[in-house]
Design goal:
By secondary structure, this protein is mainly alpha-helical.
């Protein structure tokens, strides 16, 4: 649904995805499909429950590292260069 929502609203508003984000790969897929941002409530809460403030920091670090690795595997160095081609395999 995300691509059709992005197409429907065009440049009028930013689209942020809330729900279903569990990894850096999920964040990258959402951005590739047109989201300008994502919310990561569950990983945030798991980290908080497990280790407090340090757990939240660790959860965010893990997601960032997953994104970095996945971007590298897709041949991308800058999030601004990420688009649907990383999912479909077409430019």
């Amino acid at each position: 649904m995300l691509p059709s929502i992005v197409d429907a609203v065009g440049d009028r508003i930013e689209i942020h995805l809330d729900g279903g984000i569990r990894s850096g790969q999920d964040v990258l897929k959402a951005v590739a499909l047109g989201a300008k941002g994502t919310y990561i409530g569950r990983p945030f809460l798991y980290g908080l429950g497990a280790m407090g403030k340090e757990g939240v920091t660790l959860a965010l670090d893990i997601i960032r590292k997953e994104m970095d690795i996945t971007m590298a595997l897709c041949g991308k160095r800058d999030i601004k260069d990420v688009n649907a081609s990383i999912i479909s395999g077409r430019a």
